[in-house]
């Protein structure tokens, strides 16, 4: 057989919904020598990683660590551990990834009730209260940062509300962690999951999760075994806890990456990081509006790290994104589900949330829009962003 030549990876600016560019320090950390997954030196790295992850999640939950898989495994981990056949669960459905929660919960054998909003809108506390009163579920699932619509769901009071009805709160923070406030203990979140490749500026491959003592107690009282052996928290906590019992071969280099990514997050400071994302979003938004693009998410609830905008009439989705990629080396995301072919998703996450990303994508997008026949005032996007930074 003929063997392929050397890797020749093109240089890209990853401004889609994820992955985002990894921080150079993270990539350097991954170049360290491998250790065994039960080596005392690696176990110490695990301890440090879990401790920093608690700080990032703003929690004291002992059961906080990364699952050895991508963000979707985080979703499965939370749901398969908490739900058994016949359990009632409510999913707040207003985007593509809440539909995923419905799919996973259904596969657990749960009785799923959805409360729905048009894509891009957020839920009122009163409508969630009404559903809790009516259904009396075991758990409620919601996506804090809906990657498909760019909407920022307000969840600060949801944990308290859920606990009024003896209900567990499960939160999707895949696109939230490291970009916007995530306060697990203060908001009384029972189970939460995220990923490594977005706000934490690492490659894809790990899914941070955290379970409250209330959620832990629920798992311990299960009548049946967890549906997934690999994602069973009763087994995983023996590896991440004091026992250090062998469970699986952990992705050693990815743990190095996450440790360094979390260290960078905490060096910057969570509030400083949140403010940086908001500042760059404000400039990008000003530029996108100047180019004639309109946001899909409800006003006042737009994510700073994921900007979803409608494609102008007459502009071809795929052709424009291909031009951005092949001529300018910039990746942005297309729409999913109801928004397929109608929306572009521009990410400013983690390491990529900076003014150079903002100016670069606005200048390139202007050229692509003009080539597609859209009426755009030359330089308007960059000028609007510059003005926003000066305010």
UniProtKB/TrEMBL annotation:
Entry-linked Pfam families: Aminotran_5
UniProt record, GO biological process: glycine biosynthetic process, by transamination of glyoxylate
Keywords: Aminotransferase, Pyridoxal phosphate, Transferase
Binding site for substrate: 345
Protein name (database record): Alanine--glyoxylate aminotransferase family protein
Cofactor: pyridoxal 5'-phosphate
Single GO MF annotation: L-serine-pyruvate transaminase activity
InterPro entries the UniProt entry points to: Aminotrans_V_dom, PyrdxlP-dep_Trfase, PyrdxlP-dep_Trfase_major, PyrdxlP-dep_Trfase_small, SP_NH2Trfase/AEP_transaminase
Modified residues (N6-(pyridoxal phosphate)lysine): 198
Origin species: Telmatocola sphagniphila
């Amino acid at each position: 057989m003929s063997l392929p030549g050397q890797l020749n990876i093109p240089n890209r600016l990853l401004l889609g919904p994820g992955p985002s560019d990894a921080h150079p320090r993270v990539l350097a950390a991954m170049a360290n020598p491998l250790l065994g997954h039960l080596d005392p030196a690696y176990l110490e790295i695990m301890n440090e990683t879990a401790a920093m992850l608690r700080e990032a999640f703003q929690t004291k939950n002992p059961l906080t660590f990364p699952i050895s898989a991508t963000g979707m495994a985080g979703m499965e981990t939370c749901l398969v551990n908490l739900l058994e056949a016949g359990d009632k669960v409510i999913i707040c459905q207003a985007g593509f990834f809440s539909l995923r929660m419905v799919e996973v919960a259904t596969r657990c054998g749960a009785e799923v009730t959805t409360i729905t909003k048009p894509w891009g809108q957020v839920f009122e506390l009163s409508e969630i209260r009404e559903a809790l009163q009516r259904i009396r579920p075991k758990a409620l699932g919601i996506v804090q940062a809906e990657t498909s619509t760019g909407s920022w769901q307000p969840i600060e009071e949801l944990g308290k509300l859920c606990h009024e009805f003896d209900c567990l709160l499960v939160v999707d923070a895949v696109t939230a962690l490291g970009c916007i406030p995530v306060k697990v203990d203060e908001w009384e979140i029972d189970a939460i999951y995220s990923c490594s490749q977005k706000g934490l500026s690492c490659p894809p491959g790990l899914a941070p999760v955290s379970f409250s003592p209330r959620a832990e107690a629920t798992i311990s009282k299960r009548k049946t075994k967890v549906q997934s052996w690999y994602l069973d928290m009763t087994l995983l906590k023996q590896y991440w806890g004091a026992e250090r019992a062998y469970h699986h071969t952990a992705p050693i280099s990815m743990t190095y990456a996450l440790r360094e990514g979390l260290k960078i997050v905490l060096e910057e400071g969570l509030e400083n990081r949140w403010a940086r994302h908001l500042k760059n979003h404000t400039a990008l938004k000003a530029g996108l509006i100047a180019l004639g693009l309109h946001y899909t998410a409800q006003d006042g609830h737009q994510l700073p790290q994921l900007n979803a905008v409608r494609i102008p009439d007459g502009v071809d989705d795929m052709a424009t994104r291909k031009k951005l990629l092949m001529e300018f080396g910039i990746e942005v995301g297309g729409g999913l589900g109801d928004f397929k072919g109608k929306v572009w998703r521009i990410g400013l996450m983690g390491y990529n949330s900076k003014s150079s990303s903002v100016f670069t994508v606005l200048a390139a997008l202007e050229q692509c829009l003009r080539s597609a026949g859209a009426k755009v005032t030359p330089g308007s996007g960059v000028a609007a962003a510059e003005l926003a930074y000066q305010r």
